[in-house]
Amino acid sequence: IDHHEGLSDLNHGIIRSIGDPKRRFEEDALRILRACRFQSKLGFVIEATTAEAMRDSRHLLLKIANERILNEWAKILEGAHCQMAIQTMIDLRMTDVFPELARGMELLRLRSNHSLNTIQFFALCQYLNQEALADSWRFSKKERYMINRLAELVEVTQNDLFDALIVFGYGTAFALMANQINVVINPDNDQRPRIEDIDRHMPIRNTCDLA
């Protein structure tokens, strides 16, 4: 039984609201981001009437709990077609709702070969805006710490090289995460081979290794 021709939409790669899309988004505005999440995962196009309603209803996202929005953002960022979904969000003016993320979104949509997780993306936006974003979103204490430290490390290494003291102090995994952000900002600033070489030749891993 297929009352809404869903099988046809699936076969043609179309995301469409059931019935009146404005009413659906008034019922739960998070569906606006969910459409983008489906696009990020599947690479489907969003049907024109649904997309128009998403744009016209975007202000309703301001009433949605912060943690629910973060959950959708995480899934958008991890999708195989993330850049496509980010482009849709920009086209539908969702940067009006998330102005603090606008510069990060603009950068990320241009980098089809690079992806960031939620922590990295917010660290990128924090670095670009030069203001603390982690505290205004409902991240855990550990996640806020990671965002702040990553933004700090990106600030240090955007125009300078990673050295042994930085890799030792922040840890190799953390340095590689910051390097991914650096590459999104400037594709020519890929220091991954340098970081891995420093790690291979690291004489100690922590202070307990000191004689």
Q: How far do the termini sit from each other?
A: 73 Å
Q: Which runs of at least 5 residues are low in confidence (pLDDT < 50)?
A: none
Average residue-wise pLDDT: 94
**Proportion of β residues?**
under 5%
CA-atom Rg in angstroms: 20 Å
What's the arrangement of secondary structure elements?
Layout: H1 6-12, E1 14-15, H2 21-27, H3 30-42, E2 45-46, H4 48-56, H5 66-78, H6 82-91, H7 102-108, H8 118-129, H9 141-157, H10 164-170, H11 172-185, H12 192-200
Parallel strand pairs: 1-2
Helix pairs in contact: 3-5, 3-6, 6-7, 7-8, 8-9, 8-11, 9-11, 10-11, 11-12
List keywords for this structure.
single chain; two-stranded parallel sheet; mainly alpha; 211 residues; 2 strands
Would you write up a description of this structure?
The radius of gyration is 20 Å and the shape is elongated. The protein is built from twelve helices and two strands; from the N terminus they run αβααβααααααααα. The relative contact order is 0.08. With 211 residues, it is an all-alpha fold. The termini are far apart. The chain has a two-stranded parallel sheet with strand order 1-2. Helix content is 59%, strand content 2%. It has helices spanning 6-12, 21-27, 30-42, 48-56, 66-78, 82-91, 102-108, 118-129, 141-157, 164-170, 172-185, 192-200; strands at 14-15, 45-46.
